[in-house]
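quick one, 271 residues, struct below
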Amino acid sequence: MDVDHRLVSLRHSEFWFTDGNIVFRASNTLFCVHRGVLVRHSPALEGILAMPSGYDTNGTEQLPIILHQISEEDFTHFLNWVYHISSVPPPPEEQFLVAILKVSHLWMISNSIQFAIDGLEKLTLHPTRQLELARLYSIPQWIAPAIQEIMPLSLASTTDTEAAQMGFKVYTIIAWAKEVMDCSSHLHSQCKEAWSGFWWKKVARAILHPMNPLPLTQILQLVIKAPLPNGMNIACKQAMVDAMIELEGLEVEERIIEGVIRAVTLYFNSL
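---
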């Protein structure tokens, strides 16, 4: 939050209270509101407002507190929620709720964050949009359901908007996992043929050897130690190996999806 004296700002038509005692500027619009009302919603906000900003600003009309990355529209939606008044028609529900979430996340207002999350969960958001909001506003409980919806979908049908919502890192994680999953599901024809040939020539013949049959307990080690079959990529072989290993009763696809969820969660936590 800082101040810029060069721009001439206009008072908001609704949220300029004559008895207000703190002035914000969002975009090029001034809002004069009640400090006590805001602080009642967010005790942390009082400390945030009291912190030195490094700029010449005191929350007056001449020196308003500037809200960077918060648009006039976003702040108006937030104040509509705070004051529960509005003389304009309500905006699309997602837009309204995301605006509340955005400002509330900035000011750590837990009750309005939960209000926005509860409202958004009642809407039919695309899973890539859920991931975007989870990343921007720290909603970890949305990661797993979104990933589970995305994994069965074809990446070829992903729009530019959906790819941007996921972000390059998450898109890469999902693309790699889907390649492995496709192979483990025998959807990769070249790998399927390579695996079939390897299984018959190496594994089945070893099991059926008349003099020295391979014990069934040693099949996994044979597969792991064998060179990569011609025509199969290394990710496919690893998927086949994973498919042979039981881990807590989970199927290989479930393990892959859980791996994606863990990777995305760790990435979001690192931001």
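The chain has 13 helices and four strands.
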